[in-house]
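Late entry, written up from scratch paper. The run itself happened at the end of the previous shift, but nothing got recorded in the book at the time, so transcribing now.
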Amino acid sequence: MPQMGESIAEGTVSKWLKQVGDAVKRDEPLFEISTDKVDAEIPAPAAGVLAEIKVQQGQTVPVQTLVAVIETAAGTAVSPPPPTPSAPARPLPPPPAPKGGDGGVATAEERLRKKSTPLVRKIAAEHQVDIATIPGTGFAGRVTKQDILGFIESGPARPAGGTAAAPAVPLPAGAGVQHPAVEPWPGDRVEPFSKIRKITADHMIMSRRVSAHVTSFFEVDYSKIAELRRRHKASSTERGVKLTYLAFIAKACAEQLRAHPVVNAAVSGDNIIYRRDVNIGIAVALEWGLIVPVVKHADELSLLGLARAINDLGERARAKKLTPDEIQRGTFTITNPGVFGSFAGAPIINQPQVAILGVGAIEKRPAVATLPDGSDTIAIRTMGMLSMSYDHRVVDGADADRFLADVKALLQDFPEGAV
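Output as recorded:
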């Protein structure tokens, strides 16, 4: 089981792409894994025959666990990679007894628990929970996300080093949600949530609980962009770039996020974090769920550079080739349900961000057009809706509407020299 990032201690074998006895080529996809960060295809480390599968589909195991054996042409099995310091191959020995109560030296077990993932530490800090007090079920006793959410759900959180109960606050992710049991009828098919579907569900529930959602809608005339796309289609294609409407929208957002920092922010307790970087997440719909790869430093990219990055991330998301780092550190998200025909929607904020832009279908519609002499007429224009859900704890309606108005103005009068 490979380690797909510093904070990832375990992975789930979601699907075997080869069966025992199958021939495999070096770097050919062998199996798929799911982690709390990303789904990915794992390539074979060598050519040969898949001789044994040791971890079945659906099983979650620590990183560096031997999951399969490949017999090579030389008749020897491919050895697993050596264990890394961050993921020992064997359980740690029993820790020594702690010294002297609260002021004593922390045990090895306590130190290990406190080395849990950043997400676990973040949840612990938000709920004033001492990780060392939670029984860990993860690798070598580490406290997992499920451990801490279960601990919070089972009773009031206690501040680290104290005994007083913490004030009631919304639970993160899907903790505490009681879904009613529904009886399947004859002929129904029952499937458990996939890992990515479960993570998405928990994240959406948490976001609705945490943020005060408000949505604003703006109609945009994309006629000038439609003409720019038509004129520059051949030249952009020659450079290997598909110049989509989404690229223009992302470019307009990237430029305006710098001018409207409250939309490019996050909430931390009673503080607002104004992000220095402009990192735009682009939601990608997959057959098995939803994922949001991030274009880092989007405001520093040209239109073609941004289009190239969006196309590349989308293709690699569908091919399960993304790395955990490529879906983290977003500061603003764009989702594009319009490609499926949706007129407009009210998307849920991607925490810990404070705003998400929804792109409606872009199509020709009748609209009022003003002629040079000042008279009005009905004309055929390329139109579409933009909707932005924002966190009203931080972003006021005036803030959101000024941002959207500036994005709209840039899209309707996009400079020729920027293409």
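The longest strand covers residues 376-391.
(Scratch paper discarded after transcription.)
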